[in-house]
Design brief:
By secondary structure, this protein is mostly helical. It has helices at residues 2-14, 16-34, 52-64, 77-81, 85-97, 113-120, 129-168, 173-202, 216-223, 259-273, 291-324, 332-350, 362-384, 386-409, 417-451, 457-472, 477-500, 502-519, 529-532, 538-550, 568-584, 618-627, 630-633, 655-667, 682-694, 696-718, 721-745, 757-780, 785-794, 796-814, 820-854; strands at 69-74, 123-127, 246-253, 285-289, 554-561, 599-604, 643-650, 676-680. Strands 2-3-1-4 form a four-stranded antiparallel beta sheet, sandwiched between helices. Strands 6-7-5-8 form a four-stranded antiparallel beta sheet, sandwiched between helices. The longest helix has 40 residues, at 129-168. The two termini are 27 Å apart.
Amino acid sequence: MTGRFERIVRGASARPGRVLAIAAIVAVLGALAALGLTPTAATDTLVGRGTPAYQATATFHDRFGDDAVLILVRGSLPNIVLTQNLSRLLGLEGCIAGNKPKGVAAPGGPRGPCAAFANTKPVQVVYGPGTFINSAVNEIQAQLASQIQSTQQRATQAAAAARKVAKARGASKAQQNQYAKQAAGLVTAEFQKNLLTLAVRYGLSSSAANPQINNPDFVYSLVFDPTRGATTPKARFAYLFPNARSALIQVRLKPGLDDQQRAHAIALIRRAVAMKNWAPTNGVTYTVTGAPVVVSDVTSELTSSLLRLLIGGLVVMALVLALVFRSRARLLPLGVAMAAAATVGGLMWLLGLRLTMASIAVLPVLLGLGVDYAIQYQARVQEDGVERAARVALPTIATAGLATVSGFCVLLLSPVPMVRGFGVLLVIGIVLAFVFALTAGTAALVMLARRGPSDGALAASARGAADILVRAGRPFRRPARFVRRRGGAIAGRVTGVSLRRPVAVLVAGAILALAGLAVDSQTGVVSDIRELVPADLPAVRDLVSLQDATGVYGDVDVVVQAGDLTTPAVVKWMRDYQAALTKRFKYNGAKNGCGEAELCPALSLPDLFRSDAASASPARIRALLDAVPPYFSQAVITADRKTAVLSFGIKLMSLERQKQVIDVMRRELHPPEGVTAEVAGLPVLGAEANAALSNPVRRLGTLLAGLLVVALALFAVYRRWERAWVPLVPIALAAGWSALVLFAIGIPLNPMSAMLSTLVIAISTEFAVLLTARFREERARGYGVEAALRRTYASTGAAVLASGVTAIAGFAVLAFSDVRMLSDFGRVTVIDLTVSLLGVLAVLPAVLVLAERRRVAPPEPRPAAEAPALV
């Protein structure tokens, strides 16, 4: 491998201009391609496709449409449904559904949202007050017309038969007419009885005999329940009319839409809602919200916020490099890291990948790691020259990179797909950062050395930028010198203690690390979206408004499958399951609807039946289903009667509590034999992904697995355990210290930062491997332990400190974000990096001293030489 590195370096040195040009082209193309990346909130980024929850959710989406986009209609319910607002709602719902009569222009014109809906058809079904009442009107009118026609025919037949019988008996003409009238009256009386049954089925009163959408008496009788209050809607219509102050329009998009199409459809819904054609009156308002809207908007907000902050982070990193990295090409390491990050972005676009909540976190992590490789290599080139650096330093840097990659490979074991993607992208990025440092870094350093400090436009531009940053950082020079002096004095004392009492240092470090691992499970994990993003973010504000108005923010669905779902046993089980769950979570529909209940009933198959349907025969149940308009039945059961859904409204809460509620739902699932049931929906997938990320046992397991993999990687390189275990000790200790500091300071984890425990291993591994290798190199030259440590920390240690401080400064910018998820992510990363850096610098001398004592034949020390100056 050393020979291969030397050949690559010689090639880059021989043609530096060509190598730099190729590297620049690759980086620029990658950056341009990365601009085409878009955020995604796809469900398969949260849980694996093979999990029961994902499969049930996929089945639900395939049969019933995507998770609902909700249009909250706020206002007095009588003002919503008993005025002209109802006609406007009907028009809005028809617009979104893509309904456009042939030969008639779509409302809003050919470029309006209604025309777009009609042309692209992204919506599978719309359920809303207007469509519901209009469908009820049409159904009742159809049944009335059919019964009236049938009654008229039967009355005519009965009258003719009675007249014929009377005539045969010799009755007079008047008597024949009387008998005919009586027979027809009996048929009419039977019709009136059936009409009363129909009215009872739809909950209508006698004053609503004329079923019209513009008949307030009919609409009132259909929607309201006077026994519960004059303006209180019927409980069984809670999915449309949650209470007396709101109504809901549910828009289920087609399941095959990609993220861009889904975002476009949501934008069209917002445009349609804003049309003057459907503008409500009497204080009624519209709000577009729902879980899919919030997830899409929050993902986009996180992506744009992080990218904006990274620009500031890059400026800060450049400023810090100009202050702490004493090199002519001070900004070269940052350029190398940026090239690697840009290439990773380009590869993502080329592979058709999208930005998830995890993948957008790759960029800052990769920048921090990429800067480190470039600084280490550049420092050795300046110290020993290109050829010796390729022969001595590159194998060590490659070993550190291999160990780091091995640690990140543990992320591939995560059950959360986006975390596995995070690991893969980091591995690719680290490899690219090393390759760019090896090729473009070598070429740039060679060109600068050949042309001299004042030759070349590239050198002049780079030097000019560095000079600007140095001047900008001039006010910080004195504090920086003070920190370096104090830091050097403290480091000297710490090293002295490690040399004199290595066992005591390690015991103290181990106690603190064990304490950190013990309290790690007590570190809070924030997963309530209201606490993670700005409260004034429109999507979150609207979601809170939805819960304030309706008591819930979305649905959790139970997908039920069987060969035939119309059997009485299945219907009874679904009704009993729904009743038991809502009772457990203290739902009181007769009193205050959802109120404080965490779970509420929504539209489900049992809601289509009367309470005695569970005791009816299968034929009777199928007849009842056939009598239900397809517009309603398709929301809860498929046409083949093999898949049905039980829906429950769930309150906005932390993902941790949401997972507990879902676990109760899952534990209570005891379907009859031959029936399968599984919870599904976006809230389920989000809760399970968060549980996998924040589980303290899993975090500890990931940490231990990472240490094991790093140990195996180091052993594979060194072939000796006594060389492999030395870097592992400070790595393990730093992991525990980081957990302790986070607990002590009280910074909670979140779904974005909970996976960063591997970062401690990665950074600590890199620092420990580089410092250990340099120490052994100095010992091989014949220096004593103390002299070798001093030379190690003055050279490689200074480069480690420069790269560590640069990365810390870059992440510190994220801590100032107004998005709490990003600010906590930045603070946690700063703590991880700082603890990793200081921990390795402080503890590694003690480990090296103990390792030297174990050696059988240590080399004879030479007189200590003057340590090289800081890089």
